[in-house]
Amino acid sequence: MNIQEMILTLQKHWSDHGCILMQAYDVEKGAGTMSPYTFLRAIGPEPWNVAYVEPSRRPADGRYGENPNRLYQHHQFQVIMKPSPDNIQEMYLDSLRSLGIDPLEHDIRFVEDNWENPSLGCAGLGWEVWLDGMEITQFTYFQQVGGLECKPVSVEITYGIERLASYIQEKENVFDLEWTKGFTVRDIFYQPEFEHSKYTFETSDADMLFHLFTVYEKEAKRQMDEGLVHPAYDYVLKCSHVFNILDAKGAISVTERTAYLGRMRGLARQIAKTFYEEREKLGFPMLKGKGEPEHE
Amino acid sequence: MNKRDLLLEVGLEEMPARFVTDSMNQLGSRVEEFLQERKISYGNIKLYSTPRRLAVFVQGVAEAQEDIEEEAKGPAKKIALQEDGSWSKAAIGFTRGQGMSVEDIYFKEVNGVEYVHVNKFVKGKPAIDLLPQLREVIVGLHFGKNMRWADNELRYIRPIKWIVALFGSEVIPFEIINVSTWQKTQGHRFLGETVTITSPAEYEEQLKAQFVIADPAERKDMIRRQLAQLEAENSWVIPVDEGLLEEVNNLVEYPTALSGSFNREFLELPEEVLITSMKEHQRYFPVKDETNTLLPFFVTVRNGDSRSLDKVARGNEKVLRARLADADFFYKEDQSKDIDFFLSKLQAIVYHEKIGTLAEKVSRIRRLSAKLSELAGAMKEEQEKVDRAAEICKFDLVTQMVYEFPELQGIMGEKYALQKGEDREVAQAVNEHYEPRHADGEAPRAFTGAIVSLADKLDTIVSCFAVDILPTGSQDPYALRRQAAGIVLILEEKKWNIPLETVLETAIAVVKEDGIGEKETGLLLEELTAFFKLRIKHSLQERNVRYDFIDAVLAGRVGSLPSLFAKAAVLMTHKEEAGFKETAEALSRVANIAKKAEVQSSINEQLFENKEEKVLYKEFLRVQQGLEETGEAEEQFALLESLKQPIEQYFDHTMVMADDAAVKENRLNQMRKLAALILEFADFNKLLVK
Known about the structure:
The complex is a heterodimer of chains A (about 300) and B (about 700).
Chain A lengths: L2 H14 L3 E2 L14 H4 L8 E10 L15 E10 L5 H11 L9 E5 L2 E3 L4 E10 L2 E12 L2 E2 L5 E6 H8 L9 E3 L2 E2 H19 L2 H20 L3 H20 L5 H28 L15
Parallel strand pairs in A: 1-2
Antiparallel strand pairs in A: 2-3, 3-9, 4-6, 5-6, 6-7, 7-8, 7-9, 10-11
Helix pairs in contact in A: 1-3, 6-7, 6-8, 7-8
Chain B lengths: L2 E10 L4 H21 L7 E6 L2 E10 L5 E9 H4 L8 H9 L8 E5 L2 E10 L4 H4 L3 H6 L20 E8 L2 E2 L3 E2 L2 E4 L1 E3 L7 E3 L6 H6 L7 H19 L7 H8 L5 E7 L9 H12 L2 E4 L5 E10 L5 H27 L3 H7 L4 E3 L3 E2 H18 L4 H13 L7 H5 L6 H9 L4 H9 L14 H20 L13 H14 L6 H14 L7 H22 L4 H7 L7 H14 L5 H15 L16 H19 L3 H9 L2 H10 L7 H21 L9
Parallel strand pairs in B: 7-10
Antiparallel strand pairs in B: 1-3, 1-7, 2-3, 4-6, 5-6, 7-8, 9-10, 11-12, 13-15, 14-15, 16-17
Helix pairs in contact in B: 9-10, 12-13, 12-17, 12-19, 13-16, 13-17, 15-16, 16-17, 17-18, 17-19, 18-20, 19-20, 23-26, 23-27, 24-26
């Protein structure tokens, strides 16, 4: 099964379980969790069931396209269901079956893994799912988002697409994976991998990036003052990406690191709180029978 | 009494392996307490647990609570009966209170007076009416980490999926957030099916038929046998790490061990790296040969049966290959650099914003190590080793290997240092200076490692205290308590005769040189001494020194730790002896009256008025000299003990608070000097033997 078929299969699977299929959000981010479709929508009482592919940028993992396992940008398949359905584990295992993974022929285990994203004030409990010893999925019950207690609790399922594909396609090198018939990951992503790695580690200008961070942060605050949650959040995402590049370059010392994370966390908390209040003002419109998951 | 078996099973989404066993034991003991409190008799108990269930089977549970039969005494007969022979209000009230009536009254004499009595009888309630309260047992279990799910308020270890509660074949009815008790349990997630438990006694076997080995001991045995079989088939030795076995056991419901291999070339990696990759990251058992040499194989335990084992093995091999390829890359990168390269990188790492960089910390460790090794009486050659070890003790923190495998800090340092041609003891110290690594870990063996370990830990504690990072309650992010315990252990074990106060003052001086914090030295020393006294107290408690003896030896200066521990031990051995109490009393009496001394002046022998004063003074001089000459706690105590009689005699014949001011002052001063000697050993006033 190639990556394109995998994505189509997962989309079909979760669509059948009542998820809205979203497209990737168009601001750079380090993980699918940071998309407003997860971060913001996990807040408050309104039901929310979505699935989407999220290209995720990890500048520190950039290896000029030379490492068989590490990528500057990989893909996550992200599922959010709120409230977490009772049979979510079965739904998930069915998705593996639909990808051709027969649990009877493999060793599938749910191994404790608690997740935290300090830059967004998020915490959750759950597992990493092991397929024959390989972590293929993060499975998390959100307990806190943007510093707010989750009520109801969302469950987040994050598949590492390339990881899973390397298993399904039995490939040692991520660049050899078939994206779709006739095209490999190398064909599509090698050049950007190389260039982004070179950019991150060699040609990017730390001073300019520090400046951008300050500008983005200021703009995020300014938009918060206007009560505009979404534009403000976009700028927090931009801060986060710029920070990740600086961090990968080693341009941020440990102390500074804590301070920068604290600044982003402060903004994220404020945005989370305001988003909740804005939805409340609207009377939590999605509570009215819409978006109910179709339980099997 | 009729009896039935009881079964309680809580089905959960996969629990964290580390909590499974403890949670099972907790469920068992709480169910027992539940039955005992309600006076419901029961027989044997058996506990079960897997990642997905906690269960308890109780054999022969009585169908009803025990009846209560007891004699209750009421008012005296003359109060109970009115003049007309009818029952008084007091009598009626008493019987009502006992749930009986006046017809049940009989009289019985107690100490010559007749009192109203009844034979009280309370019929036990049917167990089935009380068992639904088991709900609270389940809800009340404590776990290390709780979560919420869906729209529920309940915090629990993981979402509850089903509950089996059976009393014989009868379902005990209750509900926990939409999950009602019933008779059905789940088999193995992939191999089994839902199954109706016909009776509690069938539980274990019925689950087994569904590929769930519910008894954790049986599951563990299965794994052991499978490992042994792989050993036999391949002539391998598979060392069984009990911690790993316990974890693996709690990750599976139906274990099947299988082996895989990796490329022989990876065996060039340090053994610790291979083992960490396999054990910590993948929960594999490493494989060795008879000579204890690592082989390019591993064993993993799968949650399932033996179908497609080769496929499972291939998958696992692929994961391990990727991990080892990474490690190999880091290893080669690190080897291509020299120690100075890494040391220079320490300048860029902030240890703590108020305390400075790692490079600065290392510089302090170096200065402090030099002073400590001098205090410990090191030779020049030893001092040179200490200096080099202190200089390089943190270099491996910036190697790629330690970045990827933080648990290998120190271990990689020792390896790399040896490869770079460092002295063996210096290299060893890079590793040993982290010791003791945990609460009951061992102190560094070699002198060099011990000194650098002391210096590192002291620096951490003192600089944290200097900037007001103090452990409070359960908060101790820098593990200062553990490090202090490590210092106590090292100082005691190495038998260095350095007073703790000197050690702390030395460390404070070094931290002050670097201008860390603004706290003044006196306050810092006071806080640190109090903090260390608590650790020492803890350490003495662990040796079963009684608390009043601990207070007695810790009342004054701490002094050198080996002698402090020896003093506590000596006092504990003598405490039951005849005369100990009197000795303690005599010594305390001196200390007590000495507190009244207001002026410090020397003793004027001309002012002595009686023989006893003169004798005591002579004895004082003898003991004072004796204490100066011996470092043995046993001898010191014997010297103090010899003062008992002269002190007693003295008090029998001497009025310390004499009318003559000069005589009084002289006597108080004699008491003061004597008390100082005694308190140097212990404050006998704290002892509860008197």
